[in-house]
Amino acid sequence: QAKADGRGSLRFFSPEIMQRAKERLSLEAEMRRALERGEFRVYYQPQLHLGRCEVTGLEALVRWEHPERGLIAPGAFISLAEESGLIVPLGNWVLQEVGRQMRAWTDEGKAPGYVAVNLCALQLGCVDLVDAVRAVLDANRLPPDCLELEITESCLMADRGRAIETLETLRGMGVRLSIDDFGTGYSSLSYLQHLRVHRLKIDMSFVRDLETNPGNLSIVTAIIALGHGLALDVVAEGVETPEQLAHLKRLGCDLIQGYLVGRPAPAPDAIDLRLGPGHPVAELLRA
Ligand code: C2E
Ligand code: MG
Ligand code: MG
Ligand code: MG
């Protein structure tokens, strides 16, 4: 029973908390079933290389195709999947699905240069991650550099020693690494010296109002300079407007990703995206 609602006192098991706990439990159970029933999908979003004016790779983004509620974005279930540990089997499924898809694309003669897969702290702390990655590459006869792993700064904070060791092993195998949502974590920059990554991805919160916010313009300029100083490629996320693209190009950003180039889409649509003459982005880059 809830405690009397005195000032500063705690109320245990209020109806709202009970309700939320129930919802979480049922969502968790539903996710487990969804994984068994094959309701998850991998969508792919293009990354455009500005210098080459071509899509050089894709980011894999998980979706839940719920039989009643329709397509559910990861924002609604990834954090619960992390808390419950379900992210480990789900993340493994994503890796396997990406490997299978890369093999199929390779057989069709249209493999992208690489596919980037998101990892969370729990997956990184898992002893079997290296084995899981190796197994997927071997099973599908894929070169390690066709796989990129995206990690966030906070994911390195969780279990620094172990995480860095795991990532070093993966890098040693030839897998590419990138730092996602760069600039939004609380971590210091020193890890960039211990862990050699290939790319920095500028978080979309800095890209959003690049045209009008001088603070964000400074941050983006600084991240690009930092990346290039460390010989890393810099990718800007969440690019939606021609103005943002123009700024990023002028600042020397290497790649962009965002709705302007293409939304996350099922494999066949993502791979058939062409930026030939007539595509607005191609025209902008030529200008
Ligand atoms: P993220 O890795 O930073 O992915 C970028 C997010 O920005 C994606 O959201 C993408 O759809 C969205 N986005 C891309 N371009 C634009 C744009 O121009 N405008 C706007 N407004 N949004 C854009 P999504 O797919 O909902 O994924 C959200 C987050 O969920 C991802 O952020 C990633 O952290 C996580 N996630 C997705 N798939 C996986 C997965 O397989 N495993 C793990 N561990 N996390 C995943
Ligand atoms: Mg990502
Ligand atoms: Mg991001
Ligand atoms: Mg994110």
Radius of gyration: 21 Å
- In DSSP terms (H or I, runs of 4 or more residues), the helix count works out at 13
**Main sheet record:** 8 strands, mixed, barrel
Small-molecule binders here are: ligand C2E, magnesium ion
Give, in order, the helices and strands.
HEEEHHEHHEHHEHEHHEHEEHH
N- and C-termini, Cα separation: 68 Å
The whole-number mean of residue pLDDT values reads: 91
Model regions low in confidence, pLDDT < 50 over at least 5 residues = none
User: Given the C-alpha coordinates, what overall shape results?
Assistant: globular
Strand order of the largest sheet: 1-2-4-5-6-7-8-9
Number of strands: 10
Strand content: 15-25%
- The percent range for helix content is 40-55%
Class by SSE composition = alpha/beta
Organism: Castellaniella daejeonensis
Keywords: Phosphoprotein
Protein name: Response regulator receiver protein
Domain EAL: 24-278
Record the SSE blueprint.
Elements: H1 15-37, E1 40-49, E2 54-66, E3 70-72, H2 78-84, H3 87-107, E4 114-118, H4 121-125, H5 129-139, E5 147-152, H6 153-158, H7 160-173, E6 176-182, H8 191-194, E7 199-202, H9 204-207, H10 214-229, E8 233-236, H11 242-250, E9 255-256, E10 265-266, H12 267-271, H13 280-286
The structure holds ligand C2E and magnesium ion (3 copies).
Domain EAL: 24-278
Protein name: Response regulator receiver protein
